[in-house]
Design a protein that fits this description.
Layout (H helix, E strand, L loop, with lengths): L1 H17 L3 H12 L4 H7 L6 H40 L18 H15 L3 E2 L5 E2 L1 H4 L30 E2 L4 H10 L4 E10 L10 E11 L4 H16 L6 E8 L2 E14 L2 E4 L4 E11 L1 H6 L8 E8 H9 L12 H7 L16
Parallel strand pairs: 1-4
Antiparallel strand pairs: 2-3, 4-5, 5-10, 6-7, 7-8, 7-9, 9-10
Helix pairs in contact: 1-4, 2-4, 5-10
Length: 359
């Protein structure tokens, strides 16, 4: 028995000294002192010995157990210190190194303007609704009361995709108005939503790009009239541009999905290359609006005899150009770091009504 104990202790002490990590050390502990370990099994066999031999073997096994446990504890402490030293070495900071430059990323003006618009209209009770960029003809045109011969349906004005087998050609949405139809079909009135997102038209010049950003607004309730629409638009324009009592002009217009329809101009002045909102004799068109056409309400599953509503749409890129004095729309999409550093916003400049919008 004594020889077996001595052999186990010596082999185990060598293994403990050579353990490279905590997991390996625990495996040695289980193999020797665990429920099925070598020392434990010897202790279970003491009952087969005579009293004198049992007493001697028991003392030897207890001493071996204490020696092994002490060796395991010492090695565990050494491994913990080694692990901590390695961690501290890896995370060491050389204070003699030069300061790291501040992050150079900025928030794009379109993203900033979008956040400002959402913040203003959310405070007025609007919620954000979303829809797909690829639409079918009915949601993009038919449900919005746009006839087959409407110019917007022509190839030169709209991006069409290849049709599915036996189906109609899908289209890159030309406005975010389809979101209104989808929302009406899925949600009963009253409704108060805005639908910001990307839109696509085959057009490119100083003030137009093939892909641009719009926000559509929709309100449906009982006894809604044009006065509600004008009040909503006035509150929005004054909050966005930060100017009280902005002169506004509401001009009759035509849109297939609203009746009556109107375009909205704001008073401004031009001095050299500088545009000033809210003063002067000039006018600048900023958005289109009107009362939702009864056919559009019906196509959205809303009874036009019981419910009325108004809608408005505005170009985010255009409003960003006006507010931030950006002369050329094409710079929005050139990915020029110099342009982005000049016109971009700090990442933490999150627009809120209580904290302030961008001046």
């Amino acid at each position: 028995m004594d020889d077996r104990i001595t052999t186990i202790v010596n082999d185990s002490l060598d293994a403990i000294a050579g353990a490279g990590d905590i997991a390996g050390l625990d495996a040695i502990r289980v193999a020797t002192l665990g429920r099925k370990g070598s020392i434990t099994l010897l202790m279970k066999g003491l009952g087969t010995l005579d009293p004198q031999a049992r007493r001697q073997a028991g003392q030897a096994l207890n001493a071996a157990k204490d020696d092994l446990q002490s060796a395991i504890d010492r090695r565990r402490g050494e491994l913990e210190r080694q692990r901590l030293d390695a961690l501290l070495e890896a995370e060491r900071i050389d204070v003699t190194l030069p300061e790291r430059p501040a992050p150079g990323g900025t928030v794009h003006p379109v993203s900033q303007a979008t956040d400002e618009i959402i913040a203003i209209l959310a405070d007025m009770g609007f919620t954000v609704a979303e829809g797909p960029d690829i639409e079918d003809d009915w949601f993009n045109f038919g449900a919005l009361n746009m006839p087959e011969e409407h110019p917007a349906r022509q190839e030169h004005d709209t991006f069409y995709l290849l049709p599915a087998a036996g189906g109609a050609r899908p289209v890159l949405r030309t406005h975010t108005s389809p979101v209104q139809i989808r929302h009406m079909l899925d949600n009963p009135p009253p409704i108060r939503i805005i639908a910001p997102g990307r839109t696509y038209r085959s057009d490119s010049d100083l003030t137009h790009t093939p892909m641009f950003h719009q926000v559509e607004g929709l309100v449906i309730d009982r006894d809604i009239h044009m006065g509600h629409l004008k009040g909503c638009l006035r509150q929005f324009v004054e909050a966005f541009f930060g100017v009280d009592d902005v002169p506004m002009r509401f001009r009759p217009s035509y849109f297939p999905f609203t009746s009556p329809s109107m375009e909205v101009d704001i008073g401004c002045s031009f001095s050299g290359n500088r545009l000033t909102i809210g003063e002067g004799e000039g006018w600048m068109e900023v958005l289109g609006s009107g009362m939702v056409h009864p056919r559009v309400l019906a196509n959205g599953g809303v009874d036009p005899e019981a419910w009325q509503g108004f809608a408005f749409g505005l170009g985010i890129d255009r409003l960003a150009m006006l507010k931030y004095a950006i002369p050329d729309l094409r710079g929005f999409f050139d990915a020029d770091l110099r342009w982005l550093r000049h016109y971009g916003f700090r990442p933490l400049d999150v627009p809120t009504l209580y904290g302030g919008l961008t001046p």
